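Morning!

This is the sequence you dropped in the shared folder:
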Amino acid sequence: MNGLLVLCLGVPVFTALLFTIVLAPVQAQASTWAPGATIQEAASIQATQAGLDALADVVPFVVPENFDIPAVIEGEGSCYGFEFSNAWVGIGVDDVRLIPRTNVLDIEADLQVWLNDSSDPFYLWYDTCLWEEGCWTRVDPFPVYVTMPATMDVVTDLDGNNVIDVTLGTVTYTHGLTTYHLDPDFNCSITSIDTVLDWVFGFSLIEFLVEIIEPVLDAVIADQMGDIEAMLEDALSAARFEDVIAIGATNLEVMVEPQNIDITPNGLEIYAQGRMFAEQGECMVDRDPGGSLKTSTPVPDITANPPGTQVAVQLSDDIGNQALYAIWRSGLFCYDLSEGGDFELPIPLNTSLLGIIGGEGFTALFPESMPMRIVTSPDESPLVNYEGEHDIVAEIRELGVDFFAEVDFRQTRALGIDLEVDAGVDLAFDGTLGELALDVTLAPEDTVIIASHNELVAGSDETISDNFGGVLEVLLEVFLGDLLDQISFLIPSLNGVGLSSIASDPSGGGDWLGVRATVGPVPYDNSDAENGCGGEGGCATAGPNAVWWFLPGLLWLRRRERRR
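The structure's back. C-alpha cells below.
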C-alpha cells in the first residue's frame, strides 16, 4: 500500500475501525498519552445475564450414560440381612446456567438422575428374621441441582503477560428425590420397606439411595471441573492480543491484554489495557505534538447497554487515537512524488497536471510541460468519529498536498491544497455464513478540497476544488485498488454456538464505540476456513474462542496481514 493512498486514507480500514474522537485542534490537546504509553481501561468486554445465558450452551458438561453401583449385601447366610444389587445410576443434563454474583460466576447445572429402568431393574431384599421381602425395581428420574462457583483473576504468566485465571470452588448440590420417584410397578410395599429399614437398620430408603448416588455425582462433577476451567480460560484468553502489523513501510506494535475482571449481578466485564506504537519518522519530528489525545472518560456501565444486549465490546477513543497517532507519527503520510519516481500513475506528474487541476490560468502559466514535485504535509494526526453517518467515520484534517515547480527560474510552491477526508466504514454481518464484512466508503464527495495556497493564478480556487476531485478519484482507484471493495472474513463458532448478529453505535457520550453482538445456535462452523480465524495467521493468535470477535479492528489487522 503506497503512494497517494496514504494522502486520502492512510491506514484505511484499520484506523477507521479502531479510533474515534470529536475533532479538536492539536494545540488544544492539553492532555496527551505519550508515544507507546500503556492506556488503562482502553477497552471493555461486557457479557450481560442474557449473554451468559447464551454462552452457557458451550459449557462442556457431558456425562457417560450410566455408572455401575457395587452391590451392598449384609447378613448373608443368616435370617437377618439386606441386599441391594444389580444397580446402576443414569445421569442426564437438562440445563446449564451462568449466574453472576459479586466476584463469583456460578455455574449451575440441572441434572436428571435415575437408578436402573424397567428393562433392567435393581434387586432390593431384606430379612428381619420375622419377615422377609424382596423385589426388582427402579427409581424414576429425579432432579439434582449442582452449583460450581468460579472465581476469575488477572494474573501474570511466566512470560510476563496478563492472563485470566479461572478457579472452581467447592461444589454444592441438592436433590429432589422422594418416594414418588420410586417405581410404582414393583411388587414390594415401599411403606413397609422404608419402615423396616428405619426400624431395623437405622436409615430410610431415600437416605440409603442418596448415599449410594452421592459418590457417583462427586466423581462426575470432579471430572467436569477440569474441562470447564480449561474451557473458560481458553475462551477468556482471547482478551489478549499482541502482534506487529506491517502497514506499508510502518510496523505497528499492537498490544491489548486484560487489566481487571469484574463480576457483579449485572454480568461479567473484562477491562483491557493496551498500547499502539510505531517508530517516529524523520519527516514528523517537527510536527509531533508529543502524544495522542487523552480524554480518559470512564467505561460505559454495563447497565447502560440497550435492553436485550448480550455481549458488548466498548472501545475507547484513547486507544484508537493512540493507534492512529502512532501510524501518522511514523511518517506513513509523508510522500514526495515526481516524474520518473517509484510510482506509475495514469496522470502526468509534471506541470500539465496543474492545468488539469487549476484550469486555463495554470495552462497559460506553464505552456510547456516542466518537471514538478508533489509533496504531502500531514500536519495533524487523523481522528475518527463514532457519531457520523456511518458506523465509524475516519476524519483526516490538515493533510496538505503541495505542488512545486520552477517559476521565474526558481523552485516555488505553485499550488497548495488541503484535504479534509471523511472515510466511512459500516459493519455487515451474515449470520448464516458467519461472515463479517467491512464496507468502506471513500469517494470524492467525502473529501473537502481547499486551495490553501494559490498565489499564482488568483480567482481559480473554485476551479481547483472542482477539478481536483476528479484527479483524486483516479488516485484512489490506483492506490486503493480492491481495498474499496467489500472486505470480509469468516468467524468461527464453538460447539454450534456463535455470533448471530452484530451492531454498533456510539456510547459514553461519543467517546466509546459499543459493538454489540447476539449469541446463539448458528448454522456455520468456519473453524477451518482459509481466510477465517481458523486459517494460517488468523485469530488463533488471540485464542480459538475469541471474545475479541467483537473488536473488528483487530480482526481486520489479521485479515490485512494475510492479504499482503
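Headline: The two ends are 9 Å apart (CA to CA).

More detail when I'm at my desk.
O.
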